[in-house]
Amino acid sequence: MSSAEPPLIEFVDVARSYGEGTAKVYALVGVSLSITKGEFVAIMGPSGSGKSTTMNIIGCLDAPTSGKYYFRGVDVGALSRDQRALLRRHYIGFVFQGFNLLARTSALENVELPLIYRGVPRKERRGLALAALEKVGLAGFESHNPGQLSGGQQQRVAIARAVVTRPSLLVADEPTGNLDTARSHEIMQLMTSLNREEGITILMVTHEPDMAEYASRTITFVDGHVAADQRVAA
Protein backbone atom coordinates (compact mmCIF):
# COMPACT_ATOMS: atom_id res chain seq x y z
CA MET A 1 0.00 0.00 0.00
CA SER A 2 1.34 3.43 -0.90
CA SER A 3 1.72 5.90 1.95
CA ALA A 4 -0.66 8.24 0.11
CA GLU A 5 -3.55 5.78 0.20
CA PRO A 6 -6.00 6.53 3.04
CA PRO A 7 -7.31 3.78 5.34
CA LEU A 8 -10.38 1.98 4.01
CA ILE A 9 -12.21 2.84 7.25
CA GLU A 10 -11.36 5.53 9.77
CA PHE A 11 -13.21 6.63 12.90
CA VAL A 12 -12.12 9.89 14.52
CA ASP A 13 -13.57 10.37 18.02
CA VAL A 14 -16.90 8.76 17.03
CA ALA A 15 -19.73 8.81 19.55
CA ARG A 16 -23.27 7.52 19.17
CA SER A 17 -26.01 8.24 21.68
CA TYR A 18 -29.72 7.44 21.79
CA GLY A 19 -32.45 9.27 23.67
CA GLU A 20 -32.44 12.67 25.35
CA GLY A 21 -31.78 14.12 28.79
CA THR A 22 -31.75 11.61 31.66
CA ALA A 23 -32.75 8.85 29.20
CA LYS A 24 -29.67 9.40 27.03
CA VAL A 25 -27.57 6.27 26.50
CA TYR A 26 -24.16 6.20 24.82
CA ALA A 27 -23.55 3.18 22.57
CA LEU A 28 -20.14 4.52 21.49
CA VAL A 29 -17.91 6.99 23.34
CA GLY A 30 -15.02 8.69 21.54
CA VAL A 31 -13.96 5.75 19.37
CA SER A 32 -10.96 6.27 17.07
CA LEU A 33 -9.69 3.44 14.87
CA SER A 34 -8.54 2.74 11.34
CA ILE A 35 -8.74 -0.36 9.16
CA THR A 36 -6.62 -0.70 6.05
CA LYS A 37 -7.52 -2.38 2.79
CA GLY A 38 -7.11 -6.17 2.89
CA GLU A 39 -7.43 -6.67 6.65
CA PHE A 40 -9.61 -9.38 8.23
CA VAL A 41 -10.90 -7.88 11.48
CA ALA A 42 -13.01 -9.56 14.15
CA ILE A 43 -15.13 -7.29 16.37
CA MET A 44 -15.85 -8.77 19.80
CA GLY A 45 -17.40 -7.68 23.08
CA PRO A 46 -20.32 -8.41 25.39
CA SER A 47 -23.91 -7.52 24.51
CA GLY A 48 -24.37 -3.75 24.58
CA SER A 49 -20.64 -3.05 24.18
CA GLY A 50 -21.03 -1.03 20.98
CA LYS A 51 -19.91 -3.59 18.40
CA SER A 52 -23.22 -3.68 16.50
CA THR A 53 -23.47 0.12 16.51
CA THR A 54 -19.94 0.27 15.06
CA MET A 55 -20.90 -2.17 12.29
CA ASN A 56 -24.09 -0.23 11.51
CA ILE A 57 -22.15 3.03 11.18
CA ILE A 58 -19.51 1.39 8.96
CA GLY A 59 -22.28 -0.15 6.81
CA CYS A 60 -23.98 3.27 6.46
CA LEU A 61 -27.06 1.94 8.27
CA ASP A 62 -26.54 4.43 11.12
CA ALA A 63 -24.57 7.65 11.64
CA PRO A 64 -22.44 9.02 14.49
CA THR A 65 -23.90 11.59 16.88
CA SER A 66 -20.49 13.27 16.85
CA GLY A 67 -17.05 12.59 15.42
CA LYS A 68 -16.09 11.61 11.87
CA TYR A 69 -16.36 8.42 9.83
CA TYR A 70 -14.24 8.27 6.67
CA PHE A 71 -14.57 5.58 3.99
CA ARG A 72 -11.63 5.55 1.57
CA GLY A 73 -10.86 9.09 2.71
CA VAL A 74 -14.40 10.39 2.11
CA ASP A 75 -16.28 12.00 5.02
CA VAL A 76 -19.41 9.82 5.08
CA GLY A 77 -21.24 12.31 7.32
CA ALA A 78 -21.04 14.91 4.53
CA LEU A 79 -22.83 12.62 2.07
CA SER A 80 -26.56 12.79 1.33
CA ARG A 81 -28.82 9.83 2.12
CA ASP A 82 -28.78 8.85 -1.58
CA GLN A 83 -24.98 9.07 -1.73
CA ARG A 84 -24.68 6.86 1.38
CA ALA A 85 -27.04 4.34 -0.25
CA LEU A 86 -24.82 4.31 -3.36
CA LEU A 87 -21.71 3.83 -1.22
CA ARG A 88 -23.39 0.91 0.53
CA ARG A 89 -24.57 -0.63 -2.75
CA HIS A 90 -21.28 -0.30 -4.64
CA TYR A 91 -18.61 -0.84 -2.01
CA ILE A 92 -20.05 -2.92 0.85
CA GLY A 93 -21.39 -6.49 0.96
CA PHE A 94 -23.39 -7.79 3.94
CA VAL A 95 -23.68 -11.27 5.48
CA PHE A 96 -26.06 -11.88 8.39
CA GLN A 97 -26.58 -14.60 10.99
CA GLY A 98 -30.04 -15.36 9.58
CA PHE A 99 -28.92 -15.69 5.90
CA ASN A 100 -31.77 -13.36 4.71
CA LEU A 101 -32.38 -15.29 1.49
CA LEU A 102 -35.61 -15.08 -0.52
CA ALA A 103 -37.36 -18.38 0.29
CA ARG A 104 -39.10 -19.11 -3.03
CA THR A 105 -36.18 -18.00 -5.16
CA SER A 106 -33.32 -20.13 -6.51
CA ALA A 107 -29.76 -19.80 -5.28
CA LEU A 108 -28.79 -18.23 -8.60
CA GLU A 109 -31.60 -15.65 -8.44
CA ASN A 110 -30.74 -14.79 -4.82
CA VAL A 111 -27.14 -14.09 -5.84
CA GLU A 112 -28.27 -12.01 -8.84
CA LEU A 113 -30.34 -9.67 -6.65
CA PRO A 114 -27.68 -7.00 -5.91
CA LEU A 115 -26.81 -6.93 -9.62
CA ILE A 116 -30.45 -6.26 -10.50
CA TYR A 117 -30.36 -3.22 -8.18
CA ARG A 118 -27.26 -2.03 -10.03
CA GLY A 119 -28.90 -2.42 -13.44
CA VAL A 120 -26.51 -5.09 -14.72
CA PRO A 121 -27.85 -6.69 -17.95
CA ARG A 122 -29.38 -10.16 -17.55
CA LYS A 123 -26.72 -12.15 -19.43
CA GLU A 124 -23.81 -10.50 -17.60
CA ARG A 125 -25.70 -10.83 -14.30
CA ARG A 126 -26.17 -14.55 -14.79
CA GLY A 127 -22.48 -15.09 -15.58
CA LEU A 128 -21.33 -13.15 -12.51
CA ALA A 129 -23.78 -15.02 -10.24
CA LEU A 130 -22.69 -18.43 -11.60
CA ALA A 131 -19.04 -17.50 -10.98
CA ALA A 132 -19.82 -16.35 -7.43
CA LEU A 133 -21.63 -19.62 -6.62
CA GLU A 134 -18.69 -21.58 -7.99
CA LYS A 135 -16.32 -19.50 -5.86
CA VAL A 136 -18.19 -20.51 -2.67
CA GLY A 137 -18.30 -24.20 -3.66
CA LEU A 138 -21.92 -24.37 -4.86
CA ALA A 139 -21.54 -25.11 -8.57
CA GLY A 140 -24.44 -27.42 -9.43
CA PHE A 141 -26.77 -25.94 -6.79
CA GLU A 142 -27.91 -22.95 -8.89
CA SER A 143 -31.56 -24.04 -9.15
CA HIS A 144 -31.98 -25.08 -5.49
CA ASN A 145 -34.11 -22.80 -3.33
CA PRO A 146 -33.10 -22.16 0.32
CA GLY A 147 -35.45 -24.89 1.62
CA GLN A 148 -33.47 -27.47 -0.35
CA LEU A 149 -30.13 -26.35 1.14
CA SER A 150 -28.45 -26.96 4.50
CA GLY A 151 -27.70 -24.03 6.81
CA GLY A 152 -24.07 -24.02 5.72
CA GLN A 153 -25.08 -24.02 2.05
CA GLN A 154 -27.55 -21.18 2.65
CA GLN A 155 -24.80 -19.10 4.24
CA ARG A 156 -22.57 -19.84 1.22
CA VAL A 157 -25.33 -18.48 -1.04
CA ALA A 158 -25.53 -15.40 1.19
CA ILE A 159 -21.75 -14.92 0.93
CA ALA A 160 -21.89 -15.34 -2.86
CA ARG A 161 -24.63 -12.69 -2.96
CA ALA A 162 -22.47 -10.36 -0.81
CA VAL A 163 -19.33 -10.71 -2.98
CA VAL A 164 -20.93 -10.90 -6.46
CA THR A 165 -20.61 -7.11 -6.75
CA ARG A 166 -16.88 -7.33 -5.90
CA PRO A 167 -17.19 -5.04 -2.85
CA SER A 168 -14.26 -3.34 -1.14
CA LEU A 169 -15.64 -4.42 2.24
CA LEU A 170 -17.56 -7.45 3.49
CA VAL A 171 -19.48 -6.81 6.72
CA ALA A 172 -20.39 -10.09 8.44
CA ASP A 173 -22.65 -10.00 11.51
CA GLU A 174 -22.37 -13.28 13.47
CA PRO A 175 -22.04 -15.24 10.18
CA THR A 176 -21.69 -18.60 11.98
CA GLY A 177 -24.29 -17.93 14.69
CA ASN A 178 -26.87 -20.36 13.25
CA LEU A 179 -24.42 -23.10 12.21
CA ASP A 180 -22.94 -26.17 13.87
CA THR A 181 -19.21 -26.30 14.62
CA ALA A 182 -18.13 -28.12 11.44
CA ARG A 183 -20.15 -25.82 9.14
CA SER A 184 -18.91 -22.78 11.08
CA HIS A 185 -15.28 -23.67 10.39
CA GLU A 186 -16.09 -24.29 6.71
CA ILE A 187 -17.63 -20.81 6.43
CA MET A 188 -14.64 -19.23 8.17
CA GLN A 189 -12.22 -21.03 5.84
CA LEU A 190 -14.24 -19.71 2.89
CA MET A 191 -14.13 -16.15 4.24
CA THR A 192 -10.38 -16.45 4.88
CA SER A 193 -9.81 -17.51 1.25
CA LEU A 194 -11.95 -14.60 -0.03
CA ASN A 195 -9.85 -12.24 2.08
CA ARG A 196 -6.50 -13.67 0.94
CA GLU A 197 -7.26 -14.50 -2.69
CA GLU A 198 -9.78 -11.79 -3.64
CA GLY A 199 -8.35 -9.06 -1.41
CA ILE A 200 -11.73 -8.32 0.16
CA THR A 201 -11.49 -6.52 3.48
CA ILE A 202 -13.62 -8.35 6.05
CA LEU A 203 -15.16 -6.95 9.22
CA MET A 204 -16.88 -9.62 11.30
CA VAL A 205 -18.85 -9.36 14.53
CA THR A 206 -18.62 -12.58 16.53
CA HIS A 207 -18.98 -13.71 20.14
CA GLU A 208 -17.09 -16.95 19.45
CA PRO A 209 -13.32 -16.78 20.20
CA ASP A 210 -12.54 -19.78 17.95
CA MET A 211 -14.16 -17.97 14.98
CA ALA A 212 -12.30 -14.74 15.81
CA GLU A 213 -9.02 -16.69 15.57
CA TYR A 214 -9.45 -16.78 11.77
CA ALA A 215 -9.06 -12.99 11.68
CA SER A 216 -5.69 -11.23 11.50
CA ARG A 217 -6.85 -8.60 14.00
CA THR A 218 -9.35 -8.54 16.86
CA ILE A 219 -10.91 -5.34 18.22
CA THR A 220 -12.75 -5.78 21.54
CA PHE A 221 -15.39 -3.31 22.67
CA VAL A 222 -16.50 -2.77 26.27
CA ASP A 223 -19.04 -0.10 27.32
CA GLY A 224 -18.75 1.80 24.04
CA HIS A 225 -14.94 1.99 24.12
CA VAL A 226 -12.21 0.04 22.32
CA ALA A 227 -10.84 -2.05 25.19
CA ALA A 228 -8.28 -4.00 23.14
CA ASP A 229 -6.93 -4.04 19.58
CA GLN A 230 -4.72 -7.03 18.87
CA ARG A 231 -3.03 -8.08 15.65
CA VAL A 232 -1.90 -11.61 14.95
CA ALA A 233 1.76 -11.83 14.01
CA ALA A 234 2.14 -12.91 10.37
UniProtKB/TrEMBL annotation:
Say yes or no: keyword Transport present. yes
Q: Which GO terms describe its cellular component?
A: membrane protein complex; plasma membrane
Q: Name one GO molecular function term.
A: transmembrane transporter activity
Recorded hits in SUPFAM superfamilies, A to Z, give: P-loop containing nucleoside triphosphate hydrolases (SSF52540)
A Pfam match: ABC_tran
Family matches, as InterPro entries: AAA+_ATPase, ABC_transporter-like_ATP-bd, ABC_transporter-like_CS, ABC_transpr_LolD-like, MacB-like_ATP-bd, P-loop_NTPase
Residue span, ABC transporter domain = 9-234
Q: Which CDD domains match?
A: ABC_MJ0796_LolCDE_FtsE
Establish whether keyword Iron is in the entry: no
UniProt keyword terms in alphabetical order: ATP-binding, Cell inner membrane, Cell membrane, Membrane, Nucleotide-binding, Translocase, Transport
Identify the domain of life: Bacteria
Q: Which family does it belong to?
A: Belongs to the ABC transporter superfamily. Macrolide exporter (TC 3.A.1.122) family.
Write down the PANTHER family for this protein, in alphabetical order. Answer: ABC TRANSPORTER ABCH.1, IMPORT ATP-BINDING PROTEIN
**Could you tell me what this protein is called?**
ABC transporter ATP-binding protein
